[in-house]
């Protein structure tokens, strides 16, 4: 993440898999470094649907993550 800071990046957009693990921990890493975070909810995949949904709720409420759709992720 320090390379992002060196380039004055302010917003991190997360997509990929596994929502309840990789996405959640990457969001936490970005959060503690004071990045603004967007998770593209229709561009992440879970292993366990309930855990994936819980992870999205946790990121939104605890890390101030913006949950966005792919068509809106760069606005």
**Total helix count?**
3
The rough form would be described as: globular
What distance separates the N and C termini?
22 Å
Average pLDDT reading? 93
Query: Strand arrangement, largest sheet?
Result: 1-2-3
CATH topology: Rossmann fold
Order of helices and strands: HEHEHE
Output the structural class: alpha/beta
CATH fourth-tier homologous superfamily: Isochorismatase-like
Number of domains: 1
The CATH class assignment is Alpha Beta
CATH architecture: 3-Layer(aba) Sandwich
Count the strands? Answer: 3
Rg result: 12 Å
Q: What is the share of helical residues?
A: 40-55%
How many strands, which pairing sense, and closed or not: the largest β-sheet?
A: 3 strands, parallel
In percent terms, what proportion of residues is strand? 25-35%
Summarize the helices and strands and which ones pair or pack.
Elements: H1 2-6, E1 11-17, H2 19-32, E2 36-45, H3 49-62, E3 66-68
Parallel strand pairs: 1-2, 2-3
Descriptive account of the structure:
- The protein is an alpha/beta fold and 75 residues long.
- It has a single domain (2-70), classed as 3-Layer(aba) Sandwich (Rossmann fold), CATH 3.40.50.850.
- It has three helices and three strands.
- A three-stranded parallel beta sheet has the order 1-2-3, covered by helices on one side.
- Helix 2 links the parallel strand 1 (11-17) and strand 2 (36-45).
- Helix 2 packs parallel to helix 3 (49-62).
- The longest helix is centred in the middle third of the chain and has 14 residues, at 19-32.
- It is globular and about 35 Å long.
- The chain starts with a helix and ends in a 7-residue tail after the last strand.
């Amino acid at each position: 993440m320090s390379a992002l800071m060196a380039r004055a990046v302010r917003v991190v957009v997360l997509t990929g898999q596994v929502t309840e693990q990789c996405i959640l921990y990457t969001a936490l890493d970005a959060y503690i470094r004071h990045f603004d975070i967007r998770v593209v909810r229709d561009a992440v995949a879970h292993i366990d649907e309930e855990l994936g949904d819980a992870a999205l709720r946790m990121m939104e409420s605890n890390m101030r993550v913006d949950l966005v759709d792919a068509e809106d992720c760069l606005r």
